[in-house]
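Re: the request from the purification team.
They wanted to know what the chain is likely to look like in 3D before they choose a buffer screen. I agreed to run a prediction and write the result into the notebook, where they can find it.
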Amino acid sequence: MVRISHLLGHWLACRDATRLLSQLEEREPGTIERIRLRWHLAACEACTKFREQLGCLREAVRRYGR
């Protein structure tokens, strides 16, 4: 039996999660990346806050560019 942890690899570090969140505007993450990021965000309050702040920043840039 294949364990899900073998398919997904190791726990996503905050450094990797924030880098991936920053790249979401430029590229579509793969299925495994997306799952690992969701798991990380479910457990990490700091990265969840980073995602929210990044969303606010992106919205401000969009509005400024109009």
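For the purification team: The CA atoms of residues 8 and 32 lie 6 Å apart.
Please add any questions underneath this entry.
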